[in-house]
Amino acid sequence: MMKQSIYLTLSLALSLTLASCSGDKLSKESVLPPVSEQRSELDRWCQEHITRPFQAEVIYRWDRNHAERSTHTYPPRLEQVRPVLEALEATVLSLYRDKQFFTSSDFIPAHPLLRIYLYGGANRDGQGVDLLFNRKAPSIELYIYNVDSFSPTSQVEVYRLIRSAQHQIGRHLMTIHPYDHDRFLSLGPDRYSSTTEPFADAYRSYEKSGRLREGLGLNRYAYSRGFYSILGMLGAREDLAEMYSVTLTETPAAITQAEQDAAVPDDANGDEDAKRRYAEEAKVAHETFVQKRAFLSKYIEEAWRIPLQRLQLQSLQLMNQYLDKHHATQP
C-alpha cells in the first residue's frame, strides 16, 4: 500500500506539472543576447578576415593553460590585435591561398590551422632567449608573441612576425607531407642542443646590440656552424622549419652569401694549430650548409610540387609590399 501511495502521489504531481506547462506560452525572445551582441567589433573582424577564409579560430583573450610555465607571456593590448592580424593576413596567410602555388587539396585551407593564439609579450625561456615558436604546441596551432611591441612601420617587428608564422606554418605543412627525418638528421646530428643554453649568450648579444633582425636570421654564429639561424640549433625539426622560414624572408643573394661566408675560417692570429682547426670547422660548416640547402629545395619541390625559389620570391614580394605600404624603417 505504501508503494502504491507513492506512485499515485508522483503521478498526480507529474500531471499537474504537465498541465501547468501546457497552459504557459513560451516567449519568442531568447533570454540570451544575440550572438552579434556577444561579440565585439574586434571579434567580428577576426571572424570575417581570419576565421572564415582560413578556418582558424583567433584567441587573444588570456588563457593561462595555453602559455608555457617558463615563459613571460601576458595578454595582448586589444588595440594591437588587429594590426598584427592584418600584417599576418597580408604577408603570410594570403601566400597560402595563392592558387598559382597551392592548388593541391593537401594545403591550407584544406588542412587549416586550428587556432591562432596571440600574446602581448615575448616567449622567453629560462635562458632569456626570445623563442619565436612554442616547441610543445601541436603543428595545427599558431602562436604569435610580442604583439604589444609590434608596429607596421618597424621592419624588425614585421620581420619577426613573419619569421615566427612561417616557421610554424612550415612545420605544419611538413607534418602533412613528412620528410626523411633520418636523412636530414644525418647532416649534422652532433651540433643540436635540447636547450638554448649553449647559444643563449650569442643570441642575446644580437638582441642587446640592436641587431635583432640579424640575430633572428642569417648571422655568422649560425652559418659558421652550418645553420640558417641560431634557433635552428634546437633540433632537426626546428632546424628545417627555421630554414624554410629564413628562406621565405631572405633574398637568394643573402642566402648564397651566407653559404660562401660559412667556408671562411675564423682568424687564427698566427696560431697554426688553431688555423688548421678553424679551416676544418669552416669546411664542415660549408658542406653542411650546402647539403641542408639542397635537402630543403628537393623536399619542397618533390613533396609540395612547388619550386622553393618561386615561393621565396612571392613571399618576399608580399613582405616588401606591406613594408612599402606602411613606410617601414629600420630601428
From TrEMBL:
- Keywords assigned by UniProt, alphabetized: Lipoprotein, Signal
UniProt signal peptide: 1-19
- Identify the Gene3D superfamilies for this entry: 3.40.390.70
Highest taxon of source: Bacteria
**Stated name of the protein:** Putative lipoprotein
* Higher taxonomy: Bacteria, Pseudomonadati, Bacteroidota, Bacteroidia, Bacteroidales
